[in-house]
């Protein structure tokens, strides 16, 4: 059963109890809009060690062809784990 | 063929549980409902049922285990009382909002403090807005009958809500009565198999339950949940009709006892209804036209139907076995009076708070109440709408 859950869904169509029947639907929701601190990627310092990608609780560090891309700010909560794990100071936390 | 037996209210519930043979029962003992899981655990130990019995370390865990099990696709049950129900408080909301038709036997008992173990409706009334269907039982027979029907009511696809079946602590839970039991086979056929549409252990459909709902979604969920409650009214009557076919016993939203031509009437729930009926019988012999409306279904509240049933009564006394501290009366009073408000010939309504913490209520007390209702009918000024019955002044 596939129900489109978005901000237009009515009470008649929303799933009972909010049960989610499809995997991977987080991409449809913008959940990073209440962040206080924001990680900024300093590309010239990055050695592409990719330590930041697996530690991100929200999969907000996209990696393609073994190269990390810009943060996915729609989902990043600004927790700062990526900044702490980065050995090269390639991530800085700034006020949102 | 009905089986004649004499059982306490707790035994009656455990027999119903045995006959239903649920997939999971998770429970923590608390007076006066302790015996329900106690008797039932013997059935489990003896292999009479194949239920997974989960002896948990608190009522919060009991409800959590039921939620997990029911979400996984298992028919789950528990029993509790008083502070046990209060400890389940947080999880009661999770169960109802996740639309999990868990069945709970609530043996009504006062909430602390001071500590008290006797009958009082403070526990279930405290949970009345948690989204559970609530059914109240006058005696052991009703507790048994209601518990079996509760399974069907909650699991109906239109409803999908948990159901609480209440009875009075010690008065019915430990009082032994003669009663009629259904055959095991009849109960089994009546409740059928639990076949949820969506459940966690279905390998064909991996799902996520209990997600976070922001303000953009929460209200739609609550509105949908209310719809389940609205549908429940029809389902309660449908299930009662089917139950009548196998048992011969009739159930509705409420029971009207000598109400049709009553001049004054009382509204009550649970065991006190029996005391009131006995008083009515006495007073009817004396030519007094007194009646009773005993509410069986409290959630959803059948307001329109109650208003209709009381339309020809001139004075109504509403009996509350719990306090709200609003200083305006008890929960049964609020809801009944509110239901009567739009009635063009609405009766005079007064509230009696009685029997808190198990204080005895006798036919003598009820007679006094009826006499007062008559005085009000004759024009006596009502000084205080809400009064306390049997409290030492």
TrEMBL record, chain A:
Entry keyword set: 4Fe-4S, Iron, Iron-sulfur, Metal-binding, Repeat
N-terminal signal peptide: none
Annotated GO MF terms: 4 iron, 4 sulfur cluster binding; metal ion binding; oxidoreductase activity, acting on the aldehyde or oxo group of donors, iron-sulfur protein as acceptor
Residue spans crossing the bilayer: none
Occurrences of domain 4Fe-4S ferredoxin-type (ranges): 37-66, 67-96
Entry superkingdom: Bacteria
Cofactor(s) needed by this chain: [4Fe-4S] cluster
SUPFAM superfamilies, sorted: 4Fe-4S ferredoxins
Protein name: Ferredoxin
Species for this entry: Anaeromicrobium sediminis
Lineage: Bacteria, Bacillati, Bacillota, Clostridia, Peptostreptococcales
UniProtKB/TrEMBL annotation, chain B:
An individual GO BP term: response to oxidative stress
Cross-referenced Pfam families: PFOR_II, POR_N
Keyword Oxidoreductase: yes
Domain spans labelled Pyruvate flavodoxin/ferredoxin oxidoreductase pyrimidine binding: 16-240
Domain Pyruvate:ferredoxin oxidoreductase core: 262-366
Coiled coil: none
The keyword Oxidoreductase is assigned to this record: yes
Keywords in alphabetical order: Oxidoreductase, Pyruvate
MF-aspect GO terms: oxidoreductase activity, acting on the aldehyde or oxo group of donors
PANTHER family: PYRUVATE-FLAVODOXIN OXIDOREDUCTASE-RELATED
Family the entry assigns: Belongs to the pyruvate:ferredoxin/flavodoxin oxidoreductase family.
Protein name (record): Pyruvate ferredoxin oxidoreductase
Organism of origin: Anaeromicrobium sediminis
High-level lineage: Bacteria, Bacillati, Bacillota, Clostridia, Peptostreptococcales
Underlying gene: porA
């Amino acid at each position: 059963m596939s129900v489109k859950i978005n901000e237009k869904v009515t009470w008649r169509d929303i799933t009972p109890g909010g049960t989610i029947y499809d995997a991977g639907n987080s991409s449809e929701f913008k959940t990073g809009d209440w962040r206080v601190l924001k990680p900024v990627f300093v590309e010239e310092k990055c050695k592409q060690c990719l330590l930041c990608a697996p530690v991100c609780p929200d999969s907000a560090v996209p990696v393609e062809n073994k190269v990390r891309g810009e943060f996915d700010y729609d989902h990043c909560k600004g927790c700062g784990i990526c900044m702490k794990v980065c050995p090269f100071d390639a991530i800085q936390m700034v006020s949102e | 063929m009905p089986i004649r037996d004499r059982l306490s209210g707790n035994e009656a519930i455990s027999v119903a549980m045995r006959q239903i043979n649920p997939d999971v029962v998770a429970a923590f003992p608390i007076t006066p409902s302790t015996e329900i899981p106690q008797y039932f655990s013997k059935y489990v130990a003896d292999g009479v049922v194949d239920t997974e019995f989960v002896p948990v370390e608190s009522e919060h865990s009991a409800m959590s285990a039921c939620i997990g099990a029911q979400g996984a696709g298992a028919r789950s049950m528990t029993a509790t009382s008083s502070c046990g129900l209060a400890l389940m408080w947080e999880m009661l909301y999770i169960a109802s909002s996740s639309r999990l038709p868990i069945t709970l036997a609530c043996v009504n008992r006062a909430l602390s403090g001071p500590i008290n173990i006797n009958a009082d409706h403070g526990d279930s009334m405290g949970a009345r807005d948690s989204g559970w269907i609530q059914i109240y039982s006058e005696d052991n027979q009703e507790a048994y009958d209601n518990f079996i029907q509760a399974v069907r009511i909650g699991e109906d696809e239109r409803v999908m809500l948990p159901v609480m079946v209440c009875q009075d602590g010690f008065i019915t839970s430990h009082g032994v009565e003669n009663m009629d039991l259904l055959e095991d086979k009849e109960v089994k056929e009546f409740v059928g198999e639990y076949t949820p549409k969506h459940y966690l252990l279905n390998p064909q459909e991996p799902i996520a339950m209990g997600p976070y709902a922001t303000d953009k979604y929460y209200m739609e969920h609550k509105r949908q949940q209310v719809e389940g409650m609205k549908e429940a009214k029809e389902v309660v009557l449908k299930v009662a009709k089917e139950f009548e076919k196998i048992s011969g016993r009739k159930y509705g939203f409420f029971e009207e006892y000598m109400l049709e031509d009553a001049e004054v009437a009382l509204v009550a729930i649970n065991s006190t209804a029996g005391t009131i009926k006995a008083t009515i019988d006495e007073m009817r012999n004396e030519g007094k036209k007194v009646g009773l409306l005993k509410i069986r279904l409290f959630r959803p509240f059948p307001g329109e139907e109650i208003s209709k049933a009381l339309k020809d009564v001139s004075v109504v006394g509403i009996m509350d076995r719990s306090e709200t501290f609003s200083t305006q009366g008890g929960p049964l009073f609020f809801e009944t009076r509110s239901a009567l408000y739009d009635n063009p010939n609405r009766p005079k309504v007064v509230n009696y708070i009685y029997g808190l913490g198990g204080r005895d209520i006798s036919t003598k007390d009820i007679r006094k109440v009826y006499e007062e209702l008559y005085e009000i009918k004759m024009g006596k000024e009502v000084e205080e709408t809400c009064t306390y019955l049997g409290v030492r002044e």
